[in-house]
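## retry 2 of 3
previous attempt timed out at serialization; input unchanged, resubmitting
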Amino acid sequence: MPIKEGTVKCANDSNHVMITAEGNYALTTVKKVSEGNHEFKPDQGIILKVFFCNTCGYIQTYVDSKLRY
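## retry succeeded, writing output
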């Protein structure tokens, strides 16, 4: 669901306003170095805003355009 007037509604029930998770979260880049081996690149990726529904547990993320690597 889109952010409207600063709130996000749950995709499962639009009567529920989702809660903004405290803190910063990120999806980091992972590079495959060999079969079965991966290298995490914490200096590469995107920073996210995370919202969750306290009723059903649905989680939704948006790129936080204010925070960049």
